[in-house]
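Practice problem: predict the structure.
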Amino acid sequence: MNEGELFTGGEADRPDVQGMRPGSEQGGAGQAVRSRPQPTPGEVDTIGAQNLGFSPEEYLARIAAVRGRMSDQGLSALIVTDPANIYYLTGYNAWSFYTPQLLFVPSSGPLTLFLRDMDARGASHTSWLPPEDIVGYPERYVQRPHIHPFDWVAFALRQRWEVARASSSPVGVEMDSHFFSPRAFRALVNGVPEWRLVDSFELVNWIRAIKSADELALMHRAAEVTSAAMDAALGTVGQGVGQHEVAAAISAAQARGSGTSWGDYPAIVPLMPTGESADTPHLSWTDRTFAADESVSIELAGVHRRYHVPLARTAVVGRPKQELVRLEGVVAEALAAVLDVAAPGVPTAELARTWNRVLARGGLEKPSRLGYSIGIGYPPDWGERTISIRTEDDQILEAGMTFHLICGMWMNGYGYELSESILVTDTGVDTFTDFPRELIRL
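Answer:
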């Protein structure tokens, strides 16, 4: 790709071209960037640096852990595009992930956040990064058919003298990130042919699996929002009430929060499969009204500072069907058995086997996984995309891990959902909320 394709405006619109050539005045500035040490969070005079979500030590420990795993995987650098991982490492938080953005993590030295130019100031407001490490790409690259923002980013990485020193070993890329498109990958392949781009295999996500004490404090506050949102849902469901009215009550409670625990936006909207449609998960809402003796499975999450605590319960308006009552008993027994066996040192597969044994005694089975790791979440998912609780996974539980156990039973023409968000402690597990584990009669 030639310079004319990269910069399509007139000469007055492209002062950055010369600066991207090593040896120019800005190239000299790039050498200074290369020689700078890793900045310390909280030491620059920006809004974000003065309002850190976590201590400087915690951010530095996260970066050190990432670089340790990079070394283990033989990576010279890491390209991070998952907004949850960018938030985890820098604190940057805005609804900007619908346009390409990436955090460049070299093996040493400063991290660099590349994002749309109009969002760069937002990074100074919410992240600890110094202004020189927040780089906005020009607006002319946004949603164009023949050029991509990462064309510009690849060239900018050269300007900052990052390309050559990351060429000795593979560069990791989050291949399964929701916001890393094939065009983005192609732009990097074409723009930095010296690099061998390889899958990082959710490197940062795995580090996020064990929560710090400060992270758990945020999740406990999120759980207060969860309880308020579920209370709002159950207080609104009723015969003749539209699903959209329940969704509105949930959304209001999710934003309002509880006490001093204000609510953040959830990665997933409220879900409420109803009646015969409850035989499948992940349905949202319409204006359909609830009928007498009809059940609804409500799945939602409370969120505080991007940390999610999901919860699901099933309610019935009137008298429940007998098959639903049967599911209620078996599922409650199976979940209790799982909570009893869960503890540090136990494989996740053992939790799944325990669940399956209780279901089998009741003549039931659940083909889908029982749960997954949770924490920071951005649309479209609040899971961490690492640990799953199923018989095929043998991850060992450790204190500080957090999971959503989703005991969903989707039958033929009806369904039942019961879930708990749990924390693995030093001796067992704790649940984040204390809603009764039963079919809720309204």
